[in-house]
Amino acid sequence: MRPQNDTGATEQPQYGLQLMDDRPPGSSEERRVDAEIAETPGSGRCWQCSSWPCSSRAQQEAEKKAPCPGLGMFYMLLSAFLFSVAALFVKKVQDIHAVEISAFRCVFQMLIIIPCLIYRKTGFIGPKDQRIFLILRGVLGSVSMILIYYAYQSTSLADATVITFSCPVFTSIFACIFLKERYSLWDAVFTVFTLTGVILIVRPPFLFGSSVEETDRDYSVHLKGTFAALAHTVFAAVTLVVLRKMGKSVDYILSIWYYVVVGLMECVTVLFILGEWSLPRCGLDRLFLVLIGIFGLGGQVFLTKAIQIEKAGLVALMKTLEVVFAFIFQITFFNKVPSWWTVGGSLCVIASSTGAAIRKWYQSSH
């Protein structure tokens, strides 16, 4: 006798394959399959939220990738401090030519860059269509480095540092000429402010009279140092235009590699011509040379990291801290208080670079 259901109808036996699963949702079999899927690497399905892909995992990964608030500003603070300390060491080493200091820095940085290139697997030559720009970046960058080291040795630390902040003005001019970028009225205003600040720092006799030369016995050396710093900003501006031309097609480690290799060859050639090669006699000078290379590379690395995670306007504003460190180091280690001309010129240059940074920041946020 066949069994009957609750309605009295005779229950029919089921033959063949079962086409539909009558098990309720959340049965043990479904939970087992979901658990296997969730444990599968890269499946993206989560046992917590049963969503596809997992929303909680995506949120955790986003939080993990998000940079810490203020981390870029901290990197920029470290970069400004390391660059200022390296400049202080250059100023301390007075018995070695600026070209030789640049050569030692290239050697120490090369020893650090080579393992980085091997680890990142970027190669040592670079893309074929970018090699001419890489070589040009190395030549211009090394000349800029030699000039600023000569400026540190010839003039005050504060004057040389302040003049270097006129670099954005020349960069905008060269970018307008070579890259056809727009040169606005605000750029012209910032240029006037910067040139005014540089004139106050240089104090040329044809504008300030012969009393300047009588007051400052080493005025000729000071004049050479300030012009070297100004030439440094020009070469640095052209270098930035070349880097902007290459864009992201070249790894920044490879760019630094060309900078140290071409710079070393250039420094050795100049030293051979001048006959200025001499090993440092004092052990403290040797230590300073090592620290110049380490601190200089550290400043470049933290500057690059700051640019990667922070807006360019904020990075430019934080970079002005180098002037503050330069004034502090000059008063502390050399017992030389900057003149009012230097303070006034510094305010003009800093106002120009700060205004340009705020303008770029405003344009990027709107």
How would you describe the overall organization of this protein?
The longest helix has 28 residues. This protein has 366 residues and is mainly alpha-helical. α3 packs parallel to α14 and α4 packs antiparallel against α5. The protein has 16 helices and no strands. The N and C termini lie far apart (83 Å). The N terminus is likely disordered.
List keywords for this structure.
single chain, 366 residues, mainly alpha, 16 helices, disordered N terminus, EmrE-like, transmembrane helix
Strand proportion, as a percent range, falls in under 5%
Largest beta sheet, briefly? none
Number of helices: 16
Distance between the termini: 83 Å
Please give the number of β-strands.
Answer: 0
- Average the pLDDT over all residues and give the rounded result: 77
> Structural class per helix/strand content?
mainly alpha
> Which overall shape is indicated by the principal axes computed on the Cα atoms?
globular
Total domain modules: 1
How does the SSE layout of this entry go?
Layout: H1 28-39, H2 55-65, H3 71-92, H4 98-120, H5 131-154, H6 157-164, H7 167-178, H8 185-202, H9 205-208, H10 211-215, H11 219-246, H12 252-274, H13 283-309, H14 312-319, H15 321-334, H16 340-365
Helix pairs in contact: 3-13, 3-14, 3-15, 4-5, 4-12, 4-13, 5-6, 5-11, 5-12, 6-11, 6-15, 6-16, 7-11, 8-16, 14-16
Q: Can you summarize this structure?
A:
Helix content is 72%, strand content 0%. The protein contains 16 helices and no strands.
